[in-house]
Amino acid sequence: MNNPRTDRLTVIPTVLTQNALKGFLLAAAGLFLFACMDSTTKYLTTHYNVPFVVAMRYLVHFFLMVIILAPRHSAQLVHTQRTGLVIARAIVLTIASLCMGMALHRMPLAETTAINFLAPTLVALLAGSILGEKIGGWGWAAILTGFIGVLMIARPGGGLDTVGILFALGAAVANATYQLLSRLLASTEKAITLLFYTALIGSIVFGIALPWFWENEAPSTLELVLLFSMGASGGLGHYLFTLAYRHAPASILAPMTYLQLLWAGLLGWIIFGTIPDSMSLTGMAIVAASGLIIAFKSRFTKAIPAKAESDQL
Q1: Domain locations in the chain as residue ranges
Q2: Is the pLDDT of residue 167 over 90?
């Protein structure tokens, strides 16, 4: 006769393993959609100006949330406890989105994505001074490593557009600020509320500017599909990535956010035919290593997360 207690103990690890695998696959799919959104943004900015492309992304994202979520979650969408910070967080994301779009317009997808992934390192640095968190030896090593990696990617003579590099760095700084605000608001605000306000504020900001950047030429059927897909892929990516946290702990999912670098490299090669040189690839690996140090440091100290909830830029 089997011992029920023994049976229970043998089943639990299997369930946890299956859930972790499901969470991993959901997160991987979400990160792939984020990379697809960036690829689409880069492609469309070769035909349309950046503010127009970003505006269409936010407007589609907002209307999808209203159509799909508002009927069941209307109260949760709009109710906030710290409205000022929620709006400030959304405004910071609009700045990050614009900077990211400008960087993608001027630079290859993989290199732009890699520089933007400096944000977790900046979060570690800012958390020490703003939130009073202890950085420690490993934290400083990660910060230094991350900056070295970015310098290798954006080195003089590397062939990257200087203005594009500055926009990518601006996106990383804005993204880091956005992550810090996300951490401050996580204890009082619902994720669905934060997501709604980012779509709402982005739609208002870029909607007001849209008449000045409206293209005279009507988009083709393919371009309309691509414009729609940006908001859809961004929203679905966030949903899948949030769902992943129901099946796997943050300590497992945080390090794998750097899988987006792989997706960006593959899509950049397949769609645009761009392959980073050896020095840039080394720099990208170093940036990823910096983030992984922070991720594993947070796993044991619970001090600095590798990456907060991310509305992809």
Answers
A1: 31-301
A2: yes
